From TrEMBL:
GO terms for molecular function: endonuclease activity; nucleic acid binding; zinc ion binding. Residues 12-66 form the HNH nuclease domain. Signal peptide: none annotated. The keyword Nuclease applies. Residues 73-102 are annotated as: Disordered. Keywords: Endonuclease, Hydrolase, Nuclease. It comes from the Bacteria. This is HNH endonuclease. It comes from Sphingomonas oleivorans.
Length: 102
């Protein structure tokens, strides 16, 4: 499992990757539509052994990200989009169930 960069290094990496398409969704651009990219997606997901290198990433809008994630992970994306994980836990970090009690 590849560790993602966190903190300011992760922010700089994300900004650099988004700049490659001037902050626009690659799949929308391919269809001739300029749409703001909101997600730097891993083409081969990290969870499936993909690398965290620029060549394994692409810039997507929210709709395209949901679409490709649904293809890669079955029904996980639509469930996640409702704010609940596969096990039924809320995904929001500020939900009371996700608060640490230490
Ligand atoms: Zn798009």
């Amino acid at each position: 499992m590849v560790e993602r960069l966190r903190g300011s290094a992760g922010v700089a990496q994300r900004r650099r990757r988004l700049a490659r398409t001037h902050g626009l969704c690659e799949m929308c651009l391919a269809a001739g539509r300029p749409e703001i990219a909101t997600v730097v997606d891993h083409i081969v997901p990290l969870a499936l052994g993909g690398s965290d290198e620029d060549s394994n990433t692409r810039n997507l809008c929210g709709a395209h990200h949901l679409e490709v994630t649904a293809e890669q992970f079955g029904h996980r994306a639509p469930i996640k989009a409702r704010g609940v994980s596969r096990s039924g836990r809320p995904t929001a970090p500020d939900h009371p169930w996700n608060q640490r009690r230490d």
